[in-house]
Amino acid sequence: MLIVCWSPVMVEVWNGPGDKKTVEGPSRMPAPIRLRELIRTIRTARTQAEEREMIQKECAAIRSSFREEDNTYRCRNVAKLLYMHMLGYPAHFGQLECLKLIASQKFTDKRIGYLGAMLLLDERQDVHLLMTNCIKNDLNHSTQYVQGLALCTLGCMGSSEMCRDLAGEVEKLLKTSNSYLRKKAALCAVHVIRKVPELMEMFLPATKNLLSEKNHGVLHTSVVLLTEMCERSPDMLAHFRKLVPQLVRILKNLIMSGYSPEHDVSGISDPFLQVRILRLLRILGKGDDDSSEAMNDILAQVATNTETSKNVGNAILYETVLTIMDIKSESGLRVLAINILGRFLLNNDKNIRYVALTSLLKTVQTDHNAVQRHRSTIVDCLKDLDVSIKRRAMELSFALVNGNNIRGMMKELLYFLDSCDPEFKADCASGVFLAAEKYAPSKRWHIDTIMRVLTTAGSYVRDDSVPNLIQLITNSVEMHAYTVQRLYKALLDDISQQPLVQVASWCIGEYGDLLVSGQCEEEEPIQVTEDEVLDVLEGLLVSNLSTPVTRGYALTAIMKLSTRFTSVNRIKKVVSIYGSSIDVELQQRAVEYNALFKKYDHMRPALLERMPIMEKTASNGPTEIVQTNGEAEPSVVEAKHPPPVTQPTNQANDLLDLLGGNDVVPVIQTTVPTKPASAGGELLDLLGDLSLSGGPAPAPATSVPSSQPAFLLDGLTSPPLFNDIAAAGIPPMTAYNKNGLKIDFTFERANPNPNIAVITIHASNSTEADMTDFVFQAAVPKTFQLQLLSPSSNVVPTLNQGTVTQVIRVLNPQKQQLRMRIKLTYTHKGSAVQDLAEVNNFPPQSWQ
């Protein structure tokens, strides 16, 4: 017999005696699945789409449960939501449910609620402020575990407002005798100090007894708290220096104590606490003799007694080394620290070798001799397969180079340059150039080394390597025959390395007569005819491997050989052919050289004679070459100016975009290497930047459209720029003074045209570091015309030891008030700096 009885809540089904079942009725939803079942279900998903479908279905069920205010399963649903959040799915709709769980009286609900708050809430959302009162109540709860939950949450995501409101409760718990709460309160205090530094003094009284605690957890968090306070306040640092003996005693007890199963990690007693204490000692001992003296002995004990067979011991030793290097330690202790790093280099662990190389690189300047003892081990690291280790080893190897080991170190580094990956070649080649220039034992060795680099990695060298090597060769008078012979042989073997080809072309053009005459004494001379040399240079002109710059070097070399070889007719033919080249630069050179053969043939030998010795005038930054007799030719002028000084025209026009562009005209930037061809064929049109009178070369001028005012062409057809300028009695002015960089303007008038104001800028640097890659740009309204000449240097020396000067010529035909916008870019202490300014306070005499 079957009897069915309905109830508002459940259905009872009775089939007879002893057989009664209760089934949930329509008024109650089915129980949601447990978290473990959800995890198992999600892991069975074979595709990402299948997993998303499962997550969306479960999220819908959780939302429905939240809407119905189901308190029974809220904790389970939030736990599942947190798991989905960890998988990367949105879970923001559970934020308010977390607050409801926190307000619950059940510990299980509070635990999930606080966990959810730490994961789903942060100070950017106003919702988190709603839990401030709950946290305050729980901080005063009678159960320590509830207090611990509140401390963890506040220390994890408390905003500055919450920290201000609850700092008093945290400070109170920091003084409690319960070690479980003290360690959590200490970490919470660290977070409070980071958010609200002015509350630091509130915790100062509570820190007095923290280091006397026996519990290692409290000790650890106390050291973290002291470290944070010392890093943020110099006053706190001075206050806590008196704790150095106590910290030394704690560290000594850790080292000397026997086996403790609670704190032992791989045979070392509480390495985490040891590392924290060492970091705090490093901060306290830095720059203080007394504190450093107090910790010297314990640092020596840690360095000698710590086991190095396990990674735990290596971590402690590494922190010890850093502490020794930062404080004012004894010389013997520093040698011990460097020897520890040397042992690290022999470790099989790549991470340990990397940190050892990085640490040695930081200390090589102060303890050079101690690091030199591990030179062979460091060089061996160049063969490591790990690219990070290789790079650090390369940087450290260059730092170890000096006059005593230059030959051996360069041999190893050149071998590394031959076999290293392309990503290393540029930095390695630059390092070799700098080291060779600084420590070269002889000029022949220097030239051989640079040529070896150009032969093996010529495509990766910096742009200034070509002019620097040309300057080196020019100054080594006794090596000219040897150098030109070596470079000629290199050209026969390989013409793919463009910097090498450019230097070789220049040398053959300068010293081709020495090559043909066979005057080399340093090695067996080779027999070369004039036609063979010209064949090689003509081959460069037609080679697909040659860049336009290389072809310019080759054509100029052929032109120079017209005064050194007898095959003048062949050279004339080659030059005339390229007068119709599609390469504008090559065509311009050929047309100008052709004019020398025709109209100015009587001056050709004087113009194409050998370059004089070139001197370096800048001790900092890029090298600038000064020509002593004022004569040059275009290929050498290219080598004269470092790339940062000569700005591309589009960079000058970029200033318009930054300055608004509608009412300003761009600066016309002068560039020395390229000269416009002139229909008139005048000599100054051909070589406008050369002075035939033996004086200094006039400032170069630029090609401008015919619609531009005539003064822009003055530099081509008139005497040197500064011969036609008269002092106008105009007071100087400061146009810019910021971040240690000062720009002063001085004014003069040009005699032929009173509408032209000549402004000289003087850039000075009052900081303790050079300002490199300095570029000054300017723009003026359209009613003016502006010409910006090349600067004297691109390095502004430190501490006002010199100035960078640059000339601006401004045409103001309407006598309007002068306005100018300037853009300054430079590199200072490794950081790129860019700034804009507007100058409107010019003296009236400068524009009236």
From TrEMBL:
SUPFAM superfamilies linked: ARM repeat, Clathrin adaptor appendage domain
User: An example Gene Ontology cellular component term from the record?
Assistant: AP-1 adaptor complex
InterPro entries, A to Z: Adaptor_Complx_Large_Subunit (IPR050840), AP1_complex_gsu (IPR017107), ARM-like (IPR011989), ARM-type_fold (IPR016024), Clathrin/coatomer_adapt-like_N (IPR002553), Clathrin_a/b/g-adaptin_app_Ig (IPR008152), Clathrin_app_Ig-like_sf (IPR013041), GAE_dom (IPR008153)
Look up and give the membrane topology term: Peripheral membrane protein
SMART domains (UniProt xref) = Alpha_adaptinC2 (SM00809)
Q: Which Gene3D superfamilies match?
A: 2.60.40.1230, Leucine-rich Repeat Variant (1.25.10.10)
Major subcellular location class: membrane
The alphabetical list of record keywords is: Cytoplasmic vesicle, Golgi apparatus, Membrane, Protein transport, Transport
Q: Where in this chain does the record put each GAE domain? A: 728-843
According to its UniProt entry, one GO biological process term is: vesicle-mediated transport
Pfam families reported in the protein's UniProt record? Adaptin_N, Alpha_adaptinC2
Subcellular location, in the record's words?
A: Cytoplasmic vesicle membrane; Endomembrane system; Golgi apparatus
The family line of this record is:
Belongs to the adaptor complexes large subunit family.
This one is known as AP-1 complex subunit gamma
Name the species this protein comes from.
Astatotilapia calliptera (Eastern happy)
Gene of this entry = AP1G1
